[in-house]
Specification:
The protein has 10 helices and 11 strands. It is an alpha/beta fold and 322 residues long.
Length: 322
């Protein structure tokens, strides 16, 4: 991926334009722009950092101790949502080898194993892979998905759950996933939706923008086109995610109001993942607590509205290999 693309890497259109200067994660002196295709809506981060220069944006706090980021009560919710995700996969596929790309500590793989699948994972973190191997019983490759030692038509299921946007070449990754799937195999993809209401309204303050870790910023249309060009047939699209979208609204709202960027997200983490000590921001902490009784119901209402309009803050797609 080059810093300035003259054509959209998804649909090939030359209608490429500038959207805005983006707020980046620390180091805050780094300057990034969001460019986008006027035809399919795909966005991308410019300049795009080479993968070997991304380490400062993935510090130990990004993963948390033993890959546990949040307070125990939120971690319990993570497992509930993951169990539902595993159930959705089971409803749309038959048990067999299943590959989770970016599997983390293997929560989804553990749930799929309990449903009769053979769990496989790809992870860039050796520590996360250790947890997936030893706690989920998964076979995990540490390194690049494109060079993982898997064979053609090996899998019944391949999952990219909020991972595709982190890849420097997600289109090659989709083609590779197609090669790894058996005919009729299921591809599961979830990404933030740049064409969502919350993205449009909050702009550079959008929680799910996550620049520069996100190389690409998909829309429903651009992801559908990428799947089709990779040889998949789309069977289902979901715009409602109670796991992702209400919080996306809440945090984006607080970012727009001028609070420390993603401050609420930070204070919901456990001590090993937190980057902004709460005691250094007591006024913001109290004000957020006062606003939450209003912000949360509003966020739920907006989540329902954006799903009804098919412009959810995140979009989930289920596709099969033709």
């Amino acid at each position: 991926m080059t810093d300035a693309l003259s054509r959209c890497p998804s649909c090939g259109s030359s209608q490429v334009g500038w959207r805005f200067y983006a707020k980046s994660l620390p180091p805050e002196s780094a300057a990034f722009e969001l460019l986008a295709c006027s035809s399919c809506g795909l966005g991308w981060t410019s300049p795009a950092l080479p993968e070997h220069e991304m380490a400062p944006w993935y510090p130990p706090s990004y993963y948390g101790r033993e890959n546990v980021r949040f307070h125990w009560s939120l971690e319990a919710l993570v497992r509930v949502f993951t169990r539902r995700r595993a159930g959705a996969i089971r409803d749309r596929s038959r048990p067999g080898p299943a590959l989770d790309v970016g599997c983390g500590r293997g929560i989804l793989l553990s749930q799929l194993r309990d449903l009769g699948y053979e769990p496989y994972g790809v992870e860039i973190s050796e520590h996360a892979a250790w947890n997936a191997r030893n706690r989920a019983g998964a076979e995990v490759h540490v390194g690049n998905f494109m060079t993982a030692p898997y064979g053609a038509e090996q899998f019944h299921v391949v999952v990219f759950w909020h991972v595709l946007e982190h890849m420097s070449n997600p289109f090659a990754a989709l083609r590779h996933a197609h090669a790894l799937l058996k005919k009729g195999g299921l591809l599961v993809v979830a990404v933030p939706n740049l064409d969502s209401l919350q993205a449009r309204l909050s702009g550079r303050n959008w929680f799910h923008l996550d620049i520069p870790r996100h190389y690409y910023h998909f829309t429903r249309r651009s992801l559908e086109g990428a799947l089709r060009r990779s040889g998949f047939r789309l069977v289902e699209t979901a715009h409602f995610s109670f796991e992702q979208n209400p919080y996306g609204w809440v945090q984006s709202l607080f970012n727009m109001l001028g609070f420390r960027f993603n401050f609420l997200y930070d204070i919901l983490k456990n001590r090993t993942s937190r980057t902004a000590p709460r005691r250094r921001n007591p006024f913001q902490l109290l004000l957020i607590a006062a606003l939450l009784p209003v912000a949360v119901p509003l966020a739920v209402l907006m989540t329902v509205l954006e799903a009804w309009l098919r412009r959810g803050g995140t979009v989930e797609m289920y596709a099969v290999k033709e």
